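Ticket #4471: structure export looks truncated?
Reporter: QA, pipeline team
Priority: medium

Steps to reproduce: submit the single chain below to the structure queue and open the exported record.
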Amino acid sequence: MIILAFPEKLKALRLKHKLTQEELGEKLCLSRTSISYYEQGKFEPDIKTIIDISNLFNVTTDELLK
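Actual output as written to the record:
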């Protein structure tokens, strides 16, 4: 079993739902740059953003972070 880190999970979920970084950013009220930085592991989202991402993609925060 391959375990992905948060940046890879975020990108995989975004691609699975056929969203661009820009589109995901709009849904989360974030910039495309923020999404890019999260996917590159340069920055980590705050807890509110993590919850928003989990709600948007209908996954638990545990699935997103572990």
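Status: closed, not a bug. The export was complete when the record was re-opened. Leaving a note from the reviewer for reference: The helical segments are 6-16, 21-28, 32-40, 47-57, 61-65.
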